[in-house]
């Protein structure tokens, strides 16, 4: 018998549903096949890496000359033989690389890397002395300190003593745990967000020795980083942000943090929409 209008409509809907189901089955089968292929590739890569590691280890072991066993007792005896000489050498090293206050306490020590370590009142080693101020400056100046540090910084341990040259390491090497409490917030919120973001766009800079960096290298690297930022976040340079060239490093840090937060929110919304679309498809 011929179909009624309602039956025809239902059958048409069922056919569409079957067709959609068939499409989803094909998609999931394709995805499953791709995942299996990826897993096989990963297993092959692991096998190759393990083989190479074994070969490299064997080659290193075979090329390393065998050393005689070390006898701690012999070392102790040798040190005792020249105990006075060892003590004199250590004392000279401490006097040469340390600055003491009027009580004889070490307040400044220059490491083998040439940078200063400052000792706080409670005996904690710091990268910056207590009372130091990170300057409120433009991005280009902060960029220089990020990579070069404060090379010409001088430290005075007592009012009546002569100032000592105490080069401060590049700011990019500093951690919150090695900063005085008064500087942690400015470093974390006002300096690090902008400089860490921009320096990630010019990763080759970490391979350039500090002694080889000059104004040209610093300016070119900053320009290159800003070009990448312009491509990734053009909104930072448009509209009310057109005068961004004169922003201080703290303003750049705030703007970049806001942009990063906005990007995360957009990504979360996109992922949420994808999940909802998959859930709706599964219901059909």
Mean pLDDT: 78
What is the structural class? Answer: alpha+beta
Number of extended strands: 6
Radius of gyration, CA atoms, in whole angstroms: 32 Å
Number of helices: 7
Secondary-structure element string: HHHEEEEHEEHHH
The outline comes out as extended
Spatial arrangement of strands, main beta sheet = 1-2-3-4
Query: Biggest sheet: strands, sense, closure?
Result: 4 strands, antiparallel
Explain what the structure shows:
There is one protein chain. With 284 residues, this protein is α+β, with helices and mostly antiparallel strands. It is 58% helix and 6% strand. It has seven helices and six strands, in the order H-H-H-E-E-E-E-H-E-E-H-H-H. It has helices at 5-63, 72-81, 83-97, 139-148, 181-199, 215-232, 249-283; strands spanning 98-100, 106-110, 116-119, 125-126, 154-155, 164-165. It has a four-stranded antiparallel sheet with strand order 1-2-3-4. A two-stranded antiparallel ribbon has the order 5-6. Strand 1 and strand 2 form a beta hairpin. Helix 4 (139-148) crosses helix 6 (215-232). The longest helix has 59 residues, at 5-63. The two termini are 30 Å apart.
Present the secondary structure layout.
Layout: H1 5-63, H2 72-81, H3 83-97, E1 98-100, E2 106-110, E3 116-119, E4 125-126, H4 139-148, E5 154-155, E6 164-165, H5 181-199, H6 215-232, H7 249-283
Antiparallel strand pairs: 1-2, 2-3, 3-4, 5-6
Keywords:
two-stranded antiparallel sheet; extended; 58% helix; alpha+beta; single chain; 284 residues; four-stranded antiparallel beta sheet
Structure at a glance:
The chain is of the alpha+beta class and 284 residues long. The protein has helices spanning 5-63, 72-81, 83-97, 139-148, 181-199, 215-232, 249-283, and strands at residues 98-100, 106-110, 116-119, 125-126, 154-155, 164-165. A hairpin with a 5-residue loop joins strand 1 and strand 2.
